[in-house]
Amino acid sequence: MKKKKVLLTTIGTLGDLNPLIALAKVLEKHDFVVHIAACEDYRSNIEAEGLTYKSVAPHYNPNSKELCEAILHPLKTLPFFYRRILNGENLRRSVEDFDQLVKDYDLICGNVFSYAAKISCLKNHKKWASINLSPTCFFSIYDPPSLYPINFLNHMKWGRELIFKIIYKTIFKLVDFWGRDVHQMYRDLKLSSAGNLLRQAPFSQDLNLAIYSKTLGGSQRDWPEHTVQSGFLFYSAPSSRDLTKLNRFLDQNQKKPILFTFGSTALISFEQHYEMILNVSKELVEKFDLPIVITMNSQMQKKYSEGLNERIFLCDYLPYTEYMERMRLIVHQGGIGTVSPCLRSGTPQLILPGCTDQFDNAYRIERLGIGLGLPLKRLNQKSLQSYLETILEDTEYENRARRIQKTVIAEDSESIIIQEIQKLF
After folding, report:
1. In what helix (H) or strand (E) does residue 96 lie, and over which residues does it extend?
2. Helices (H), strands (E): how many in the chain?
């Protein structure tokens, strides 16, 4: 029997790419032929896993200062993506690239910004499935995402559904304006209406995968039809780095350390905070007798390593799935790619959200009682130390995290995804 061919695609940061690599690995294990289409800068990440890379526009540098600054500004992310990355010229080139590819595949799967891939599927009568990595993707009025700067609305007890209906209407109109080139492409190709670019356009009439745990939020009655929630898929990027020193540090310290780790845009967002983080770390070493691990690039390590307390370890990389369970508390930026292995490890979290779905992920972690959220705008030495001490002094955070861990591990995400994809053929 001929193997089915699946093309996966994404637009975004490494936090969007890594779950696709995890999905590709699962599909390959079940006898699918899987390729990943993305911008040129992700070629090495994909090929390092032994996967076949396909080059498609738009080509952008995910680590460029301009992009990182836009992503890290809570109100600039969407306008930047639609006007700079998904503008008319980039969209046209992307559709042309996908037109050359999709004819060779039985199924194409992509995330919320993969409009060109879906347009090409519609043109060429190919099956499309959407990939959704967090509750924010669905904009449910019954379990609404926590949106900056109106996060306080999630704590309303009455009238919340009506309020969010009104707010969503405004947000959707704005996004349709910023992404008007997408709508124009649909008209130029004489396709049926795209619908709203957040609420309808990304989704499929056949299969929408919600690849995250029900502990963060379960299925809602206003989700698109044919949506199936699987649970998380986990992936750690391969590393040629020598982790001997890290292992020695962990083995020498009897107590579990606090881990500070930030995402692929951390150099922009946290460079100004590293000195403060180190000062707080020194206080925690003294007060709680806990070791500290901090991830930062080699440039930052050179800057801060001189005279460093021997119980504080700096490294540029740490495989999450292998090391998170060895931590006492994890401090991170709140991307879903970090939240998910934290949940699986059963470790309390302190999230420092600054943009996009990070605020919502922090809200949901607080709701579960397994951590706290401290927005970057309120981050200072006093607030950081206070939040950390609150979690460290209350053992219930760890107890609840361990209970959630059991639920996350029990979710049979791989089987659910394979079963649903096989139904399409």
Report:
1. helix 88-101
2. 18, 13
Strand, helix or coil for residue 43: helix
Structural contact between residues 392 and 255, judged by C-beta atoms closer than 8 angstroms: no
3-state secondary structure of 201: coil
**Residue 149: alpha-carbon gap to chain centroid:** 20
- Environment class of 259 (CB within 10 Å of its CB; exposed 0-12, middle 13-18, buried 19+): buried
What is each CA distance from 213 to 64, 229, 262, 341, 343, in whole angstroms?
Answer: 31, 8, 21, 11, 9
Query: Closest by alpha carbon to 232, among 400, 4, 26?
Result: 26
Tell me if 136 sits within 8 A of 355, measured CB to CB: no
In the block, which residue shows the tokens 């955070």?
397
**Are the C-beta atoms of residues 147 and 163 closer than 8 Å to each other?**
no
Alpha-carbon torsion 416, 417, 420, 425, what sign? negative
Quickly list DSSP for 301-351: HHHH-TT--TTEEEES---HHHHGGG-SEEEE---HHHHHHHHHHT--EEE
Q: Which helix (H) or strand (E) holds 156?
A: none
Q: What is the DSSP string of 103-144?
A: GG-SEEEE-TT-HHHHHHHHHHT-EEEEEE-SGGGG--SSS-
Q: pLDDT, tens digit, for every residue of 67-92? A: 777 777 777 888 988 999 999 999 99
C-alpha–C-alpha distance, residues 141 and 91, integer Å? 30
Q: What is the pLDDT of residues 337-392, one digit of tens each?
A: 899 999 999 999 999 998 889 999 999 999 999 999 999 889 999 999 999 999 99
What are the residues facing 54 on neighbouring strands?
A: 37
How far apart CA 122 and CA 189 sit, in angstroms, is 10
**pLDDT for 15:** 84
- Tokens linked to 157: 């007890």
Place of tokens 């699962």: 26
For the chain, domains (ranges, CATH) are 5-232+412-422 (3.40.50.2000), 244-409 (3.40.50.2000)
Query: Quick check: bond before 375 cis, omega within 30?
Result: no
